């Protein structure tokens, strides 16, 4: 079987050659051509060296990796000439990778600014750029192995900045490098783009026309974490079944799911059906308890104290299948009991012209209660659908409804469905 080849050129040590060869094992053959004393070698001469050092049996390399030290302010034409020379030596289809390794020692602000300039210039010349040997190794291996697995599709566009964080790098320098990198990269080919479509006169019309009366239905926290017996709220981390003792007793969990199955789940389905049939008069939204930061650093104090550690996109963060959002319905991950505290819910409602908010979900005496009081304080008319909410006991549910009676009107599912069918709002 003929394997693709990778040419490694530059100021590299034998240990790094070994690491790259190990990463490419079984996917490509590595041809290493170290250049002793490359530090400070002008990039134009590096191109000459590439021609001289390339094997004589033909330019058929899948990738070329070059390691160079940043010692001065490089110019964009230098990188363009280097790219041309490398393609001449290694083959026009070779993927070009460049490791711009800073000088030894802690870089100062000037070093980092020079590195940022070099990254932009090299990216513009067609290089996949990194600023460490390890990052270059990972990029070459990913490109070559990925291309081999995809039938030679070539490297995917970089989605992260090519440099590694440095504790000595000032924040303003990091920000400048990020801006330079973003300007050089641009949007990847084929990505979904925003639209810019001005509508002359639309602002004046919006300011002079009365706002259309509109309602919204918000389903609160109907997700796998707490509405599925396999959710993390009920299953021990070891995988053993049973509820977590501090949260709810077995009898309370049984009450919750009995009422969910017999009464609340059908109520959610009826409300969603009526609201969707009334579009565009009724806006439908969902909230789920989930962090937006993979490290869950945005999780609120109450959620952390309660042990609600739900990474973004995980199974527990997804709405339950039988109350899943339809196409075009927003799902707002929240890290606080009230969605008004950690999501853009309020500006979304106002931008859509919503004045009347129907609430359903769980649990009645916690997140539903917090959403109700915050919605009322934010100036929305709130209708709480009492039999479409639930918690872990009848006593808790009824006590919460009584406490919330001063913040909202409360109706049953049948009445709410009839109102939503008319576009929302009571008939009286």
Write out key terms for the chains shown.
single chain; 428 residues; alpha/beta; Rossmann fold; 2 domains; 6-stranded parallel beta sheet; 5-stranded parallel beta sheet; 15 helices; 41% helix; 18% strand
Description of the molecule:
There is one protein chain. By secondary structure, the chain is of the alpha/beta class. The protein has 2 domains: 5-185, Rossmann fold (3-Layer(aba) Sandwich); 210-421, Rossmann fold. The strands form 2 sheets. A 6-stranded parallel β-sheet has the order 8-7-6-9-10-11, with helices on both faces. The radius of gyration is 30 Å and the shape is elongated. Helix 4 (109-124) runs parallel beside helix 6. Helix 10 (301-306) links the parallel strand 7 and strand 8 (330-334). The protein has helices at 14-24, 43-53, 76-90, 109-124, 133-149, 171-185, 202-208, 224-227, 250-277, 301-306, 339-342, 345-351, 364-377, 394-404, 413-421, and strands at 5-10, 29-34, 61-70, 95-102, 128-130, 214-220, 282-289, 330-334, 354-362, 381-390, 409-411. The longest helix has 28 residues, at 250-277. Mean pLDDT is 77; it is low at 38-42, 147-169 and 238-246.
């Amino acid at each position: 079987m003929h394997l693709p080849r990778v040419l490694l050129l530059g100021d590299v040590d034998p240990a790094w050659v070994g690491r790259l060869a190990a990463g490419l094992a079984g996917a490509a053959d590595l041809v290493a051509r170290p250049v002793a004393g490359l530090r400070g070698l002008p990039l134009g001469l590096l191109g000459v060296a590439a021609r001289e050092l390339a094997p004589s049996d033909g330019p058929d390399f899948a990738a070329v990796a070059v390691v160079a030290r940043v010692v001065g302010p490089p110019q964009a034409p230098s990188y363009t000439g280097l790219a041309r020379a490398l393609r001449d030596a290694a083959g026009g289809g070779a993927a070009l990778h460049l490791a711009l390794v800073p000088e030894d020692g802690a870089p100062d602000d000037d070093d980092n600014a020079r590195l940022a300039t070099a990254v932009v210039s090299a990216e513009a010349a067609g290089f996949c750029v990194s600023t460490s040997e390890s990052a270059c190794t990972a990029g070459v291996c990913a490109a070559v192995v990925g291309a081999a697995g995809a039938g030679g599709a070539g490297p995917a566009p970089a989605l992260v900045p090519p440099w590694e964080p440095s504790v000595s790098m000032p924040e303003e320098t990091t920000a400048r490098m990020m801006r330079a990198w973003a300007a050089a990269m641009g949007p990847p080919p084929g990505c979904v783009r925003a639209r810019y479509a001005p509508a002359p006169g639309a602002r004046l019309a919006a300011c002079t026309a009365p706002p259309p009366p509109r309602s919204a239905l918000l389903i609160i926290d109907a997700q796998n974490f707490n509405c599925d017996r396999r959710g993390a709220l009920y299953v021990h981390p070891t995988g053993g079944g049973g509820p977590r003792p501090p949260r709810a007793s077995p009898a309370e969990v049984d009450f919750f799911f009995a009422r969910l199955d017999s009464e609340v789940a059908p109520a959610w389905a009826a409300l969603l059906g009526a609201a969707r049939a009334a579009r565009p008069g009724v806006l439908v939204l969902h909230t789920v308890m989930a962090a937006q930061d993979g490290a869950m650093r945005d999780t609120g104090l109450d959620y952390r104290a309660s042990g609600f550690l739900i990474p973004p996109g995980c199974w527990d963060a997804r709405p339950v299948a039988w109350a899943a959002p339809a196409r075009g319905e927003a799902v707002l991950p929240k890290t606080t009991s009230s969605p008004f505290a950690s999501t853009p819910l309020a500006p979304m409602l106002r931008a859509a012209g919503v004045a009347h908010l129907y609430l359903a979900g769980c649990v009645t005496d916690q997140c539903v209660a917090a959403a109700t009081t915050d919605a009322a304080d934010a100036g929305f008319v709130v209708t709480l659908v009492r039999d479409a909410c639930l918690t872990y006991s009848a006593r808790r549910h009824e006590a919460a409804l009584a406490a919330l009676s001063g913040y909202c009107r409360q109706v049953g599912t049948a009445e709410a469905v009839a109102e939503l069918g008319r576009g929302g709002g009571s008939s009286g």
